[in-house]
Design goal:
Layout (H helix, E strand, L loop, with lengths): L2 H26 L4 H21 L2
Helix pairs in contact: 1-2
Length: 55
């Protein structure tokens, strides 16, 4: 997988998790363990994306 494909994959995964997070926050609330866990996973993806694209 080249860098562009990796970026696209990460962006897609980030968007998917963002939408899921929005749903979980509305359904369970912001402090529910499921919401917090998914938020942390999304943070990890953002960090990975940032590190890959830092120049």
């Amino acid at each position: 997988m080249n860098a562009t494909e990796k970026d696209q994959h990460l962006l897609h995964e980030m968007e998917t998790k963002r939408l899921e997070l929005k749903y979980l926050a509305q359904y369970y609330g912001f402090s529910h363990p499921k919401t917090v866990k998914l938020s942390q996973e999304l943070d990890e993806l953002f960090n990975t994306y940032y590190q890959l694209n830092q120049k």
